[in-house]
Give the backbone structure.
Amino acid sequence: MLTEREEAYRVLLLWQKDGAFIKESGLSPFAMEIALGVCRRHLYLEYFIKTLTKRMPALEVRIVLEMGLFQLFFMDVPDYAAINSSVELARSANLGDGAASLVNAVLRAARKAGAPELPPQRVRRVSIENSVPEWIVRRWFDIYGGDEAEAMARATLERPTEWLRVNLQKASAPVIVQRLGIPGASILYDRFVELPHDAGVKAILASPEFVEGKISFQNPSAYEVVKLLDAKPGMSVWDACAAPGGKTALLAEMDPSLDILATDPSEHRLEKMKDLMDRLGFTNVKIACVDALAPSLSSLVSRLSSLEQPLSSLVSVGELAEPRLSSKFDRILLDVPCSNMGVVARRPESVYRLTQESLKELASLQLRILESAARFLKPGGRLVYATCSPDPMETTQVVSKFLKGHPEFAKAGEPVLPGKKDARFDGFFAQALEKVVEG
């Protein structure tokens, strides 16, 4: 399996150097397990290496060592295979004989010594043990208390539950379970099917059910967020930060009569969303490349006319697209860019990118997006503000600042936190806001 380890090494090197997303690399299951596992436990593995070396090796050698340690201590790989394949990997990566000898010596020493002793100070220990940067752990301790913070840190290491969303316009969940051979599968909300960890994702992606748009991959937390919109038949809905399109698709499946405009500022992300919409065959969704902060947004939205244009055509700012939408919407969904702190297990790279300053910048951006998008909500309409982060700076504080400056809006109920209700759900926050009817 040297080739698969070489692929995992290449992807991990790209992640460390360029910040590339590991899950988008198309690795085999074995290589993906190594790559994601090393990423999830990076700080712990790095600490482990420090205890075994006088000086930290070069980045390329560290990656090989982290891969070897992960296989030795966290995978069902024989010790000799983990060590020998790591030495071979160092050679195939042209790291030199010295690097290969170092990898061999360090991994053999690790096997003999066992797991390292962790620091006694609790915040530091939780940070290293669970590979969450120390400043984040300290922040969690301050906000949630030690026990909950430690539980949150442990949860980042757990393999996330995968779910299928069934398009009830085309199939039923029990029929999908039967056809895909998932006996005894858990079904939620009549449309979400829990997959066992050994489910063949590649086989599902190649199945007729997936190709024909009967199923998609989505966590049930999306349903908890979308149903807060309380959209009624025939309403106009703007999904203002839509890509890659999961919540837009769920909305369209739940009610084909909705008039949905899905926008995002990234043309690259919208290309993927267009592919999704084409596969699902929606006729009630139109896509436009729009920045929700753009000052030209008002003119663009008001110019959306009845031109006959196929769904497959991607619309750029300044161009026209169908359907018939006014400049005000009955419902607006804002799943804003965030720190991803509620989905670290699914996106382990996120905790290493985040800084205290970038968290503040995100909160400022989120408030500006909320204020910009809220201008296009009809009186009596509803807006749902959502993030895949539980952090107060990105959630309750943003909402409170917005309401303080916009007395024409009020909360509609309490915030929804799907991850608190069910550990299999992604960690989302969602708050519904309603605009007071004028006059």
User: Anything to note?
Assistant: Residues 356-374 form the longest helix (19 residues). The chain has four domains: 2-113, 125-155, 163-217, 221-435.
